[in-house]
Amino acid sequence: MDSSFAEAVNRQVAAEFYSSYLYLQMAAWFEERTLKGFAHWMRIQAREEACHALILFNHLAARGAAIKLGAIAAPPGDYRSVTDVFEATLKHEQAVSESFRDLVDKALEIKDHAARVTLEWFVKEQIEEEASASELLEKTKMLGEKPGSGLLTLDAALAGRIFTPPAPLAGGDA
Ligand SMILES: [Fe+2]
Ligand SMILES: [Fe+2]
Question: pTM of the entire structure?
Answer without folding.
Answer: 0.94
